[in-house]
Amino acid sequence: MTVNSFCRFQSIGRTGAAPKIIHGAGGKLMALLKVSTSQEVRENSVVVEQTLWHSVIAFGKIAEHVRDSVPPGSRVYFEGSVYPGSSKDKQGNITTRNLLVVSVIRQLDAPYRAKQITRPEPVIVSTACQELAPAERQYADAPF
pLDDT digit string (tens) for 30-89? Predict the structure, then answer.
């Protein structure tokens, strides 16, 4: 009896450099990116932050989204499958790596936070006018 198994992952991290975009056979798009995650580890009663770098690959529409919408340094949530792999270096040593194939990636940094948001100047109206000024109408339901 064969047992089919797979490994899934879910993580939150920051993207490294700009993703490497590759056009595969049949025009299929592939994005290779590096994502860092960090964890706190206790060493001799001292808490040390440890950063791990992951090689992540995305295909198709997800790769398009990564190329167009995920700049370097973005905080992202990503999930997908883990595929083991191995390769030989020039000396003949075999190294094993896990390939993380993304099925979902979401940018957690809101795009508007990078820009400075300013509230427009209110329109001043005479006190005889009973209707709200356009600026007051726009922010009438604002929590501030």
Answer: 999 999 988 888 888 888 888 888 889 999 889 988 888 888 888 999 889 888 878 888
- 101-111 exposure pattern, b = at least 16 Cβ within 10 A, e = fewer: ebeebebeeee
Please measure the distance between the N-terminal and C-terminal CA atoms of the chain and give it in whole angstroms.
64
Residue 98 corresponds to which tokens in the numbers above? 């896990």
Domains, the chain, in order of start with CATH, read 7-115 (2.40.50.140)
Place of tokens 């995305």: 58
Q: Smallest Cα–Cα separation from 13: which of 85, 69, 79, 59? A: 79
Query: How far is 56 from 103, CA to CA, in rounded Å?
Result: 11
Which helix or strand (DSSP H or E) is residue 63 part of?
helix 60-69
Share of the chain above pLDDT 90, in %: 13
How far is the C-alpha of 15 from the C-alpha of 37, rounded, in Å?
Answer: 9
C-alpha–C-alpha distance, residues 87 and 82, integer Å: 16
